[in-house]
Write a structure and sequence with these properties.
43% helix, 6-stranded parallel β-sheet
Length: 513
């Protein structure tokens, strides 16, 4: 019987396995140009099982199925797209067989090699479906966990997490790969990834491949500052070098073992090894992990900063607590702007680009994007607007629409964690927005009003806002993904009504102390 990963990670460190491809290469079992996943549907699957057994016997509790490149796009390059189900199903069953059902069988989901629109040609929806094909086969075979690894496109790993979540509630381990500058090829930082994956509902996050143990340690420290999720460390056996035409990994098992205690202190709970590793690396890790588990799970030394985090693909904005006030630019809004309305009707984005740059130069840290004009295709305008904004500035975006369908289209296109502006106690809208916030990993702004309008008193506004807050949290939205607006009426509506906002803020602060 396999262990429950979520439960065990609250109690102790867990050991995963090492590399598959380089393990086969070291034994001269993987000729150049051959896809390791092709072994899954031939007699060569015994070689795969032998590698699994070597890791299981070395102490690995999680064994990763040989499915890293078994998505439709990768398999098509080798003429195996029509065998996708068999390749994936057989790989997960091989883990079960090799460990006699005693190890956690984790299905590996790797990159397709294609970027998501607008960087590449695959749409977000297509990417979700590509990963769902693998996940379905894995579930049928009895996969216990889904491990997303070596991802370089934030949009692609977002789509893979959503694909798993749409089909099951199995644990998700999500990893991106970073270079020596601690960024992905598209500029995403460890912090941006950690914030985004956390809000999407990943159970464990971390980094794999590329750099060795020391580099992974620095990357994971950055993640630890913005999330309290368990972390996973899966470095290469050093940075590979070409020696005599052969790729050589200089790392040694002791390099991995020497950093276990330091990694545990920053919140690493799963230890693994990537390219260039073998069973000897796992044995070295097991010795250190067993020693630490005997002493009790170490407390995480780096705590998540307080606040609500928004991200673009490359930048973070922190809201609340000790963070400085955040200016949100709200000029990309058609209200009272005839020229902008005409541009939207004609599918142009000149105003959006110019205004985005001007607002950021003036100090805006977040840009509100509203393109709702009667008689136009708002969803199409929103997608064009998001693409236009991201082409000229790097700041996060606030998605501003009263149409849940438009909001969902924007959330699929947006590479990061945006703010949804907004939700309130209006029941019909609340029921439609809550699932979007949770599914796509967004932050959300609560307006302190309901079906009866804006409450007259500070106490009632607080009660209304907290009612919506509780509904969101009970639904699964994380408390640190929620912002509250107690609303301000103009002085022309009555000076005493404007003061209600200040009173509500004071009541809110007092209730939190």
């Amino acid at each position: 019987m396999t262990i429950d990963l979520r439960t065990e990670l609250k109690k102790r460190l867990v050991l995963s396995d090492g590399a598959m491809g380089t393990a086969l290469q070291l034994k001269n079992l993987l000729p150049k140009g051959l896809l390791p996943e092709s072994f899954n549907i031939s007699e060569k699957i015994e070689h795969i099982k032998d590698v699994h057994k070597s890791y299981y016997n070395a102490g690995s509790e999680i064994i990763i199925a040989n499915t890293f490149g078994a998505n439709r796009v990768k398999l098509a390059e080798y003429g195996l797209a029509d065998r996708l189900y068999d390749v994936n199903f057989s790989a997960v069953r091989a883990v079960k067989d090799a460990s006699s059902g005693n190890a956690i069988a984790a299905m590996s989901l790797g990159p397709t090699g294609k970027f998501i629109y607008p960087v590449g040609e695959i749409t977000f929806k297509e990417s979700v479906e590509i990963y769902k094909e693998q996940v379905r086969a894995g579930l049928d075979a009895g996969a216990d966990v889904f491990q997303l690894e070596t991802m370089i496109d934030l949009q692609e790993i977002r789509s893979a997490i959503i694909a798993v979540k749409e089909l099951c509630d199995k644990p998700v381990i999500a990893m991106m790969t970073f270079d020596e500058t601690f960024r992905t090829i598209l500029g995403t930082t460890p912090e941006v990834f950690a914030i985004t994956a956390d809000s999407l509902g990943a159970d464990v996050i971390g980094a794999n491949c590329s750099v060795g143990p020391a580099g992974i340690y620095e990357i994971l420290k950055k993640m630890a500052s913005v999330t309290d999720l368990p972390l996973i460390s899966k470095p290469n056996a050093g940075i590979p070098k070409l020696v005599g035409g052969v790729t050589v990994f200089p790392g040694k098992p002791e390099d991995f073992a020497s950093l276990v205690s330091e990694l545990a202190l920053i919140g690493v709970r799963i230890f693994s090894a990537c390219c260039g590793s073998n069973a000897e690396f796992i044995k070295a890790l097991k010795t250190e992990i067993d020693g630490l588990n005997g002493e009790g799970l170490p407390e995480k030394g780096i705590k998540r900063e307080k606040g609500v985090f928004l991200t673009s693909r490359t930048e973070i904005v922190s809201i609340g607590y000790s963070h400085p006030p955040v200016i949100i630019g709200e000029r990309i809004n058609p209200t009272g702007k005839k020229d902008f309305i005409e541009e939207l009707k004609n599918g142009k984005t000149n105003y959006i680009r110019k205004t985005a740059v001007n607002q950021v130069e003036a100090g805006a840290a977040v840009l509100d994007l509203n393109v709702g004009v009667p008689g136009t295709d708002e969803a199409a305008s929103m997608k064009k607007g998001l693409t236009a904004v991201s082409s000229v500035v790097n700041v996060p975006v606030s998605i501003d629409s009263s149409d849940p369908g438009v909001i969902e289209e924007a959330l699929m296109l947006y590479p990061g964690k945006p703010l949804i502006n907004s939700v309130s106690g209006e029941e019909k809208k609340l029921l439609k927005i809550m699932p979007l916030v949770k599914k796509y990993g967004a932050a959300v702004l609560i307006l302190a009003l309901d079906d009866n309008g804006i409450p007259e008193t500070a106490e009632k506004r607080l009660e209304t806002a907290y009612g919506v807050y509780k509904r969101l949290v009970d639904y699964g939205v994380k408390p640190y993904d929620i912002v509250v607006d107690f609303l301000t009426l103009p002085l022309s509506a009555g000076q005493e009504k404007s003061l209600v906002t200040i009173e509500a803020l004071a009541l809110n602060r007092a209730s939190l102390n």
